[in-house]
TrEMBL record:
PANTHER family per UniProt: C-TYPE LECTIN DOMAIN FAMILY 1 MEMBER A, C-TYPE LECTIN DOMAIN FAMILY 12 MEMBER A-RELATED
Highest taxon of the lineage: Eukaryota
Principal location: membrane
Region Disordered, residue ranges: 1-39
Stored InterPro entries: C-type_lectin-like (IPR001304), C-type_lectin-like/link_sf (IPR016186), C-type_Lectin_Domain_Fam1 (IPR052309), CTDL_fold (IPR016187), NKR-like_CTLD (IPR033992)
GO molecular function: carbohydrate binding; transmembrane signaling receptor activity
A Pfam family of this chain: Lectin_C
Organism ancestry: Eukaryota, Metazoa, Chordata, Craniata, Vertebrata
Location relative to the cell: Membrane
Protein's name in the database: C-type lectin domain-containing protein
Topology in the lipid bilayer: Single-pass membrane protein
Alphabetically ordered keywords of this record: Disulfide bond, Glycoprotein, Lectin, Membrane, Transmembrane
Any single biological process term in GO: signal transduction
Organism from which the protein derives: Colobus angolensis palliatus
């Protein structure tokens, strides 16, 4: 077997410039393929938001008081996390696990201490869906609810927690898929909208 180039001189082109360095040749032959993207093609959520069911969720890293999270979510055209179905509960709790013990505010509060729990939109809390663990370590009022590592706690609303915002998922625009709908068969929509 004969080497492609016997010396550096043999690697030079007619104009005297190096046509391909050994480094770039080695890089070209050992380059790893680009990682496969797992972004959903038909996601009705904007970038950085997670799609689940008919909602889009954003789990922010900034810590704020409950009220500041409320206003922050509103500024993002969304509301704070509302859990009113088992599927929503399972999703939210799965997102709440953190090795650093970060907790997230939900949109659940007691407007008057000791009274009924209400969601931000005024909907009463359905206690059969989950149990709220009362945080007895706080001497202050515990009228707001946070999730942490798969559990739900009442907390002082002034504590700093991370924000979870949610909004209704948008419509997927089929024209953004770059395939005329009339050319697709019935089973093609699933593969088209799955993963890139």
């Amino acid at each position: 077997m004969q080497a492609k180039y016997s010396s550096t001189r043999d690697m030079l082109g007619d104009d005297g410039d190096t046509t391909m360095s050994l480094h770039s040749q080695a890089s070209a032959t050992t380059r790893r393929p680009e990682p496969r993207r797992t972004a959903h093609r038909c996601s009705p959520c904007t970038e950085q938001w997670k799609w689940h069911g008919d909602k889009c969720y954003q789990f922010y890293k900034d810590s704020k008081s409950w009220e500041d999270c409320k206003y922050f979510c509103l500024s993002e055209n969304s509301t704070m996390l509302k859990i009113n179905k088992q599927e929503d509960l399972d999703f939210a709790l799965s997102q709440s696990y953190s090795e650093f013990f970060y907790s997230y505010w939900t949109g659940l509060l007691r407007p008057d201490s000791g009274k009924a729990w209400l969601w931000m939109d005024g909907t009463p809390f359905a206690s059969e869906l989950f149990h709220i663990i009362i945080d007895v370590t706080s001497p202050r009022s515990r009228d707001c609810v946070a999730i942490l590592n798969g559990m739900i706690f009442s907390k002082d609303c002034q504590e700093l927690k991370r924000c979870v915002c949610e909004r209704r998922a948008g419509m997927v625009k089929t024209e953004s898929l770059h395939f005329p709908p009339e050319t697709l068969g019935e089973g093609d929509w699933f593969s088209l909208c799955n993963y890139k």
